[in-house]
Amino acid sequence: MDKITIAKDLLSIRAVFFRPDEPFTWASGIKSPIYCDNRLTLSDVKVRGDVEQGLADVVKEYYPEAEVLMGTSTAGIAHAAITAHLLDLPMGYVRSGSKDHGRQNQIEGKLEKGQKVVVIEDLISTGGSVIEVVNVLREAGAEVIGIASIFTYGMKKGLERLNDADVKNISLCDFDTIAQVAADTGYINSSDVERLIKFRNNPSDESWIG
Asked: Which residues contact 19 (CB under 8 A, 6 or more apart)?
């Protein structure tokens, strides 16, 4: 599944919001002209099909030795389940923290030491949360061979963190593609693309606002 198709899909269901003049504030405190809600892909049959087949194709092409898929909690769980079904692979997911009851698991589902794992993530910005998942799996003895994600902002901090963690990520779509497709289809003004890229290149420089 090519990046332009996924970009058009995300825009068609309004999973991507652009507000360069009234930026969103992420949980990290970063002010952003864009917000991506990939949970909406689950509610549209056509888009969901494109996304899950795209993730399955990524696993087959880049991680053919994968033995199990692990979703991130909570957004990656459904995508991991559907993709695993398409690939006839086992799956599980990693909680954001250990349960405070029962067996107090952080990893849900069966995972054997030495198994080759692909992490399924919906979105990567600064990379912190997905690398936490990678670390939990590695500590449990898994061999994390990579990440398959729906969308990445391609931020320098995120790329550096992935590199430092020695883990590869393959995304179905990225910030630059969706900004260009949004401009080409009239979703945003073409003059806004430069501002969006300026944000992506340096989120701490807020001169793009207004």
From this structure: 33, 34, 35
